[in-house]
Automatic annotation (TrEMBL):
Residues 30-64 are annotated as: Disordered. This is DUF6993 domain-containing protein. The keyword Signal applies. It comes from Lacisediminihabitans profunda. It holds the Pfam family DUF6993.
């Protein structure tokens, strides 16, 4: 199959145990044993134990906001928010982007966004947006190729984007 499904840790363990029992009935090989593996808990930076059977990958935790964390620590969550937004609204405007990031927990006062319109009133091909976290910036772009992001150091003046940005005054 070309697709994979994500299964919760408990469901994966139960499925694996059923499969192991069925295979044990057909084989003289000993059944595989569960080996715990560390999986980071979302947002805490600590590890939680999750069973892993054989070579089955451990479930990937859903990214969450790391309060007080760096841009690097929050990039996966920033990406999740951006990908989710643009999957449902591929041509979201700057206000929608900023409002979505703010609703997800990012500080609106630390954001920048480029205009939605060109100087002569036409639609722009892409919108750049950013969130400053300490001395780093989460940079996002909505363009013809979809959503992309990066982490870069803040500029010398503390901003993240070069060029004209629009006021976030709503």
């Amino acid at each position: 199959m070309g697709t994979s499904r994500r299964i919760s840790g408990a469901a994966a363990a139960a499925s694996a145990l059923l499969l192991a029992a069925a295979l044990a009935a057909c084989s003289t090989e000993p059944e595989p044993s569960a080996v715990p593996s560390a999986v980071p808990s979302a947002g805490t930076g600590s590890a939680a134990s999750s069973p892993s059977i054989g070579n089955a990958p451990a479930p990937t935790p859903t990214p969450s906001m790391v309060a007080g964390g760096s841009a690097v620590e929050n990039k996966a969550y920033f990406d999740l928010v951006g990908k989710t937004l643009f999957a449902s609204a591929a041509s979201a405007n700057g206000k929608t982007i900023i409002d979505t990031l703010a609703a997800a927990g990012f500080d609106k006062a630390a954001m920048q966004v480029t205009p939605d319109r060109t100087s002569n009133g036409g639609a722009v091909d892409s919108i750049l947006f950013s969130v400053r976290l300490g001395g780093q910036c989460l940079l996002g772009q909505r363009g013809p190729g979809g959503f992309s992001s990066a982490v870069q150091p803040a500029l010398a003046d503390g901003s993240c984007l070069v060029g004209k940005t629009r006021p976030i005054d709503w």
